[in-house]
Design a protein that fits this description.
45% helix; 14 helices
Length: 363
């Protein structure tokens, strides 16, 4: 599992050379990430839900503690918190809010996400402004998801299997999955690697003669499966229509489970929920969210190599959260809307990593 370790993570698709996050080893097998963290106004604790062991009995906050009590009141009214949960949380309002928000995901779903990606849920009354925390206005809170460990998918074995079923089916599956992921989250794939390769060549051209030899260029395009290379010059609209027809034709074939999971992901990706774009844009982040998923074709291929190089610099600035929404805890409608956004994002990831684990059985 490709890991992005961070004290404060950052973006990728930048105009500078690939920034890199301190990595552990490159993904080679279907590995396992460490436990995902959840943080709120209180200091983060190391246990994953639903365990309540080692929960701190005290907490600190930034500006408006009364807002969290208002939030907890609404969560109870919405059926997401109970007196029993309140007792288990030792009447700790922050821990109670945290567990109430995550209540709906369920242990099975939570464990699947833990195995594949590291997300951190944060409920806060502050927002980042030019590198500093600033209180949100008008009695608001913000709920955000940040990624600190990307998932990993080695997809070429699945593409090869689908191409054996029908010519073009593997490419259709790859592109339809790619388009669906782009709508919801930040991913790192061959397109990012091609951009990195292009930037490295531009930097080499600007170097003095004799210094250009220090650059090594990954040949990303040659690493692509032949069926994917053939589609790079296709008209996007025409190819999309052809890909949909192929997937529909073979929806009941040998790989119907993969295709059905893909169709579910596509449906979820089209559900647009209004996120707080102003909140993210005003945060003055150094870059977009860190990638939630690395999609490579083979172990240690040029795409993985480019990701490793970019990852060295991803911690040099701050990155946007993958999800961010601002709401007023005194307004139940806004609380429900924030919960819907969190739930949609978690369900999308749950369906995605169900597919990832099924595809990785070919490893």
């Amino acid at each position: 599992m490709q890991r992005i370790r961070r004290s404060r993570p950052p973006g990728v698709r930048s105009s500078r050379p690939a920034d890199r996050i301190a990595q552990s080893t490159t993904p080679g097998t279907c590995g396992v990430t460490a436990t995902a963290g959840i943080t709120t106004l209180a200091p983060a604790f190391g246990q994953a839900l639903p365990s309540l062991d080692a929960i701190p009995t005290a907490y600190s906050h930034e500006f408006h503690p009364e807002l969290v009590y208002d939030l907890c009141t609404v969560l109870v009214r919405e059926g997401l918190g109970t007196p029993e949960m309140w007792q288990k949380c030792n009447e700790n309002v922050i821990v109670f809010a945290q567990h109430a928000i995550m209540q709906g995901i369920g242990e099975e779903r939570w464990n699947l996400l833990q195995r594949n990606v590291e997300y951190h849920l944060q409920v806060s009354d502050v927002a980042e402004r030019e590198g500093f925390d600033a209180a949100l206005e008008n009695g608001q809170l913000a709920v955000t998801f940040e990624c600190s460990g990307s998932g990993y998918l080695k997809i070429e074995p699945a593409i090869d299997a689908l191409e054996e079923e029908a010519e073009g089916l593997g490419a259709a599956f790859y592109w339809m999955l790619t388009y669906a992921l782009y709508r919801v989250m930040r991913v790192y794939n061959h397109d990012d690697a091609l951009q990195y390769e292009e930037r490295m060549k531009e930097y080499a051209e600007d170097e003095e003669e004799g210094n250009q030899e220090q650059y090594e260029f990954p040949d990303v395009e040659k690493a692509l499966p032949e069926c994917i290379r053939k589609t790079l010059t296709h008209d996007p609209k025409g190819w999309t229509l052809q890909a949909r027809r192929l997937l529909w034709t073979y929806r009941n074939g040998r790989y119907r489970s993969w295709i059905e999971r893909l169709r579910t992901i596509q449906r979820l990706s089209r559900l647009r929920l209004d996120r707080s774009r102003n909140f993210l844009q005003e945060g003055n982040y150094d870059g977009p969210p860190l990638p939630s998923l690395l999609v490579a074709f083979k172990e240690h291929d040029p795409i993985t190599a480019c990701f490793d190089e970019e990852g060295q610099y991803m911690l040099e600035g701050s990155s946007e959260p993958v999800v961010g929404v601002v709401f007023s805890p005194q307004k139940p409608d806004e609380v429900r809307h924030a919960i819907r956004i969190v739930a949609h994002f978690l369900v999308f990831n749950y369906r995605l990593f169900q597919l990832v684990e099924e595809l990785q059985e070919l490893c």
